[in-house]
Design brief:
By secondary structure, the chain is an alpha+beta fold. It is built from 2 helices and 5 strands, in the order αββαβββ. It starts with 23 loop residues before the first helix and ends with a strand. The chain binds zinc ion (3 copies). One zinc ion (ZN) binds next to loops.
Length: 90
């Protein structure tokens, strides 16, 4: 795995997306999003920073869960909010 700068990789859990169809928080609000991110700490699905509500970033600020994986079909990279590195699974 590239991204050995990140010290949180052992925290990656086998998570089930809480809401496979969209951002957990936007669905609750009845709002919309642009791209989706999956929290690898708890399965929260949040919207990206291009979305109006930026729930993925808010989720990190509220919970401290550092690792967010892209929840887009063609993408599997992981972003660490703490180390600010992009991790590419092999
Ligand atoms: Zn990290
Ligand atoms: Zn959202
Ligand atoms: Zn989380």
């Amino acid at each position: 795995m590239v991204g050995s700068e990140c010290t949180h990789l052992e925290q990656i859990a086998e998570v089930e997306p809480q809401t496979p169809t969209g951002c957990t928080a936007c669905l609750a609000l009845g709002d919309t999003w642009v791209h989706l991110r999956l929290c690898l700490g708890c399965g929260f699905v949040g919207c990206c920073d291009s979305s109006p509500n930026q729930h993925a970033t808010h989720h990190f600020e509220e919970t401290g869960h550092p690792l967010m994986q892209s929840f887009e079909r063609a993408e599997d990279w992981i972003w660490c909010y703490v180390d600010k590195v992009l991790i590419k699974p092999a």
